[in-house]
User: Fold this.
Amino acid sequence: MSSPPYVLFGHPRSGNAYKPALLFALCDVPFEFRLVDVGAGEQRAPEFLRLNPFGQVPVVTHGDRTLVQSGAILQYVADDVGRFGGADADERQRVREWLLWEQDTLFPGVGRTRFFRRVGGAGPGLLEWLEQLGERALAQLEARLDASPFLAGPDPTIADVAAFGYGHLHAEAGFDLDGRPAFAAWLDRVRALPGFAPAAELMPAP
Ligand SMILES: N[C@@H](CCC(=O)N[C@@H](CS)C(=O)NCC(=O)O)C(=O)O
Assistant:
């Protein structure tokens, strides 16, 4: 394990910020949490933009390194800790594929649908498009998890951590578990992993 302390800048309602928090918990790696109030626009403050020019959470600092983009952060931490990165070259390739898929399909389909359902502001065409993407993402997860206990293979990896970030928020986006038994069983399997903790516990609001 590495020596400098990890610091996570995030928000308890952010599925993207939950991913590194959950990985730290699963790996029993201590980290300091700093709340960024994205609702109040703190992610666009000049001091935060110096940390992450993309103006988003999560950000993780590790010594003098600043890490952004949740999937890239997961890969960094998995490499650093030597866990959850995939057992061999084939699994590590599957992990990379699912990490990109998560940002391409699951996050917009479930995460953005959840966001617009909560705060409004999406025209009907956009919301419908995002909902269709969410349906597709959950169907693809169901198909994969019907064939394999975890996304990259028999054991959990950062691909599962990434997909759990928004997968577990499906209900807040208006999707249910009907007809998705493999997905439901996988959610339970992830929740049963040693060290698992919910987002609100790992990223407490003051
Ligand atoms: N691709 C980024 C997405 C991060 C992201 O969308 N973060 C949201 C919270 S979940 C955010 O900071 N939104 C505020 C904003 O974009 O102004 C990642 O994987 O880290």
Remarks:
- The chain has two domains: 6-83+195-202, 89-191.
- Residues 109 and 132 are 7 Å apart (CA to CA).
- The longest helix spans residues 89-119.
- The first strand starts at residue 6 and ends at 10.
